[in-house]
Structure to design on (660 residues):
């Protein structure tokens, strides 16, 4: 990697080599150009940066620690470290970019934040940011997800957000994105659209990555301070890929670090049973950007599945797509079953209940530890698992009393 | 000469164009809709290729796309259904859809096949000008396919001039900063935008679309543009009243008489 990586990627049109860009009808194209301009002119200003730094420290509780997993390493080998994004305010890394997006909205004089949410994690984080800044918040959510993810709907409402049910199509994330786009286009002057990951049209993959870079910057420094060296291996789960991009971005120029992105292989690698976009997808365009995409031969996005709702997306960030082609990151998969096992292992050996998304990264780290007992492994523990506890116990039972 | 160019050479005003989604309302209604439209006075037709995630379309066309997909409509099936369309339909025809479906079909394969069939133009609202010029312009030109690009009230004059440069048949002027869907007449703000575009004296004709649902709105846009494209209102009529020749005739009468 050249040392100008962040200047080179994305280029001025939002491309990470052949991926990314903005494949949009002209109405949206114009608005995205406005957001890009605003982002460049405001987010690099001294005022913006110092306000965001202050928020990171005093409101979000950053830096989050890097923690050495003693018992886990004893059992599996290797030296396993976790970057504790579960300790970030609101319980996951999502708030890192939501606070950035909301601060941008405030500087632009906007009154309202609009976004879609699938499982509700991004919605909750954005509702949190909106409350902090005194902005209105409108979250579009499929009717199916509203029923399935009820506690997050309640959390958003407690935080003062308006949850807009979407009844079109399959009534899940994809339709929620369309609905949120439309709501934004109808009112681009007073509102700002805030996407939930390193996906979507330019400038979002860049903007969300930049706001998530804090994870990697902290982790690299903390790891070095703890051990006097850099980790041999760096691991994160990838759905859209925001937590992974945050962590990976700090290690792209460290050739001694091997980087692993972990996708869900769900129940199996049969169509509709997984969301292993990098493993089985091919380049395509979804939601206004080019990336690896799970699709059928007609170019329709394929149905996807994972036990972790946050990994359940047929596309993936354009930067990940490029890093795969450049062979800078190795993308591999973990099954539902392996993730559930890791969920319990981390809970029982370290007293940390991980989000099911993060459990995929933990499961992969355990495999690496067994294979490379002499190596150090840094895992992004991107979120805590409170949201998943009822589901896991109902579906899988406890380890001593499995279903 | 391409039929689109020929049409606008002959007819400078009140050009009446329609959009419908292939495979809607019935799996095999495409060809008969085209014939009925021509017979009842349509000057040009855009045939929608359904996609599950149509970012530029409102609820009516989204719903028609879903029905069409359920009906099994694909690009491949559409092109097969249109194979001998030129034996029965003479007005200019365009295919309109989303970039990814064509990308997966293969852009060259697509242009080649539609040119053999006798389709005159293509509208891909989510294909940016820059990507078109860099990667696909040569293919379009090789097969004589006319690309049509959209402009909106938010499009800058500079961008409109760029669009003009790549446009051959007509420019699609989106009436409002919104997705497709019938509205009740155009207000002053929209009329001012139509006027601004008219006064730019573009070298290619302009067709207005989005929000044209009846005689009143069609006449409104015809004062400023070469004509209008009726989409959602027509699709909604097909959904409610069916796609018989009578039903289509009735709908068109409401606009031109």
């Amino acid at each position: 990697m050249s040392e100008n990586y962040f200047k080179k990627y994305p280029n001025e049109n939002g491309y990470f080599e052949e991926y990314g860009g903005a494949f949009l009808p002209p109405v949206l194209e114009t608005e995205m150009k406005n957001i890009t301009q605003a982002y460049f002119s405001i987010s690099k200003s001294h005022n913006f940066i110092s306000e965001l730094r202050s928020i990171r420290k005093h409101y979000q509780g950053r830096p989050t620690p890097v923690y050495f997993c003693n018992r886990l390493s004893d059992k599996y080998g290797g030296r396993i470290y976790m970057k504790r994004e579960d300790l970030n305010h609101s319980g996951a890394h999502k708030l890192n970019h939501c606070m950035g997006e909301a601060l941008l909205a405030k500087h632009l004089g906007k009154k309202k934040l609009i976004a879609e949410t699938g499982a509700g994690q991004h919605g909750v984080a954005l509702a949190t940011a909106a409350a902090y800044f005194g902005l209105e918040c409108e979250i579009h959510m499929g009717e199916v997800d509203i029923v399935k993810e009820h506690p997050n709907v309640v959390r958003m409402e407690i935080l003062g957000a308006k949850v807009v049910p979407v009844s079109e199509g399959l009534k899940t994330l994809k339709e929620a994105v369309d609905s949120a786009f439309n709501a934004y286009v109808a009112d681009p002057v007073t509102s700002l659209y805030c996407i939930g990951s390193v996906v979507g049209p330019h400038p979002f993959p860049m903007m969300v990555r930049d706001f998530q870079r804090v994870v990697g910057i902290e982790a690299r420094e903390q790891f070095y301070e703890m051990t006097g060296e850099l980790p041999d291996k760096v691991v994160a789960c990838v759905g859209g890929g925001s937590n992974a991009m945050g962590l990976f971005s700090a290690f792209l120029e460290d050739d001694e670090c091997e980087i692993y992105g972990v996708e869900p292989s769900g129940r199996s690698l049969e169509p509709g049973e997984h969301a292993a976009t990098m493993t089985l997808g091919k380049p395509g365009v979804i939601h206004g950007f080019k990336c690896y995409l799970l699709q059928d031969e007609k170019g329709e996005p394929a149905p996807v599945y994972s036990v972790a709702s946050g990994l359940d997306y047929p596309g993936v960030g354009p930067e990940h797509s490029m890093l795969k082609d450049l062979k800078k990151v190795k993308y591999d998969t973990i099954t539902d079953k392996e993730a559930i096992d890791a969920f319990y292992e981390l809970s029982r050996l370290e007293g940390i209940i991980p989000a099911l998304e993060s459990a995929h990264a933990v499961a992969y780290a355990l495999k690496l530890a067994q294979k490379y007992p002499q190596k150090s492994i840094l895992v992004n523990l991107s979120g805590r698992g409170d949201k998943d506890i009822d589901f896991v116990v109902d579906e899988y039972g406890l380890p001593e009393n499995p279903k | 000469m391409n039929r689109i160019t020929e049409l606008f050479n002959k007819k400078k005003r009140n050009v009446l164009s329609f959009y419908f989604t292939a495979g809607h309302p019935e799996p095999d209604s495409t060809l008969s809709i085209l014939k009925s439209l021509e017979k009842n006075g349509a000057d040009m037709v855009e045939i929608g290729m359904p996609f599950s995630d149509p970012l530029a379309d409102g609820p009516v066309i989204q719903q028609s796309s879903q029905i069409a997909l359920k009906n099994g409509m694909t690009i491949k099936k559409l092109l097969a259904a249109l194979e001998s369309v030129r034996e029965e339909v003479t007005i200019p025809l365009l295919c309109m859809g989303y970039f990814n479906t064509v990308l997966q079909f293969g852009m060259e394969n697509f242009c080649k096949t539609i040119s053999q069939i006798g389709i005159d133009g293509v509208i891909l609202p989510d294909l940016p000008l820059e990507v078109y010029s860099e990667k696909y312009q040569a293919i379009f030109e090789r097969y004589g396919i006319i690309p049509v690009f959209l402009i909106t009230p938010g499009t800058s004059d500079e961008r409109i001039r760029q669009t003009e440069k790549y446009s051959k048949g007509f420019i699609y002027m989106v009436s409002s900063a919104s997705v497709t869907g019938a509205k009740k007449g155009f207000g002053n703000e929209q009329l001012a935008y139509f006027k601004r575009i008219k006064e730019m004296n573009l070298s290619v004709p302009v067709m207005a679309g989005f929000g044209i649902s009846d005689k009143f709105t069609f006449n409104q846009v015809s004062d400023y543009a070469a004509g209008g494209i009726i989409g959602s209102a027509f699709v909604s009529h097909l959904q409610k009243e069916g796609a018989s020749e009578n039903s289509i005739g009735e709908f068109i009468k409401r606009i031109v008489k």
Q: What stands out?
A: Residues 129-142 of chain B form the longest helix (14 residues). DSSP finds twelve helices and nine strands in chain B. The CA atoms of residues 107 and 136 of chain B lie 8 Å apart.
